[in-house]
UniProtKB/TrEMBL annotation:
Enzyme superclass (EC): hydrolase
Keyword annotations: Hydrolase
Keyword Hydrolase applies: yes
Organism placement in taxonomy: Bacteria, Bacillati, Bacillota, Tissierellia, Tissierellales
Source organism (scientific name): Urinicoccus massiliensis
EC number, as in UniProt: 3.7.1.8
Alphabetized InterPro entries for the sequence: AB_hydrolase, AB_hydrolase_1, AB_hydrolase_fold
Keyword flag Hydrolase: yes
UniProt superkingdom: Bacteria
Protein name (database record): 2-hydroxy-6-oxo-6-phenylhexa-2,4-dienoate hydrolase
Record-level Gene Ontology MF annotations: hydrolase activity
């Protein structure tokens, strides 16, 4: 399927609007991903829905935001996107950062969300023990040493070289506005929104997920009033790793 484009907030946004029926389902991909990573989900819901998939700003074939965004900005963008297509109520499915975005969206616009599916979602900050702080201070020390020996080329250029060499995979993969957006987003917790989510919520998590570990899914389950957690035999893309179980579970949850 060939992506189409529209203009939202002055940005060119790539999207697909496919499927059949008079109900809508909106799919939100994770950080660093795109429409293609949600096609397995689309295949499971297309028979009963008009399905909207989109490359979020800064990903896939969509434009980067014009300024640094946080998770709430992505939730506000999703509202504008739904308005553009006259979607006033839908089921929403989000993976990873897409799920994090939906935890805000569902609270700010409860009238638009019929049901919610969060798959290996982010939004719970990792536990920070002594090993975390050791890594942080070691990283900072390494940066000071690197700048000392490479500072002659200019601080900005030296910092760019340092983060390309030692930064996280997601950080290294991002540039410009998206790099600053990543730094902002990764440090934001959305836990305060969980108790305010009023919609029936299905949580799907991989037992071997290392990016958003299973214990985070249990925090979602504990704090969202009407939530149920299903564990799959997989990692961060659990819906791909254990597609058969995922298909049965989501089919049952979305059945009217």
């Amino acid at each position: 399927m060939e992506k189409k484009t529209c203009q939202i907030k002055g940005l060119k946004i790539a999207y697909l609007l496919q499927g059949q029926g008079d109900k809508y389902c909106v799919l939100a991909h994770g950080w660093g991903a795109n429409i293609e990573t949600m096609m397995g989900v689309y295949e499971q819901v297309k028979k009963n829905y008009r399905v909207l998939l989109y490359d979020a700003p800064g990903f896939g074939q969509s434009d980067d935001p014009k300024e640094v965004w946080g998770t709430e900005d992505y939730a506000d963008f999703l509202k504008d996107l739904c308005d553009h297509f006259n979607i006033d109520k839908a089921d929403f499915i989000g993976h990873s950062f897409g799920g994090k975005t939906l935890t805000i969206f569902a609270v700010k616009h409860p009238e638009m969300v019929r049901r919610l599916v969060l798959m290996d979602a982010s939004g719970v900050l990792p536990k920070r023990g002594l090993d975390y702080y050791f890594k942080v201070y070691s990283f900072k020390f390494l940066k000071r040493v690197y700048l000392f020996f490479h500072g002659g080329q200019g601080r900005e250029k030296a910092l760019e070289g340092f983060y390309k060499k030692f930064g996280s995979d997601d950080y290294q993969a991002s540039q410009g506005i998206m790099r600053k957006t990543f730094v902002k987003v990764v440090n934001e917790s959305t836990e305060a929104y969980f108790p305010k989510i009023s919609q029936p919520t299905l949580l799907i998590w991989g037992r071997q997920d290392q990016a958003t570990p299973l214990w985070m899914g249990k925090v979602f389950e504990e704090k969202i009033p009407d939530a149920g957690l299903v564990e799959l035999n997989g990692g961060h893309y659990s819906y791909v790793d254990d597609y058969g179980t995922f298909s049965a579970v989501i089919g049952s949850f979305l059945k009217d």
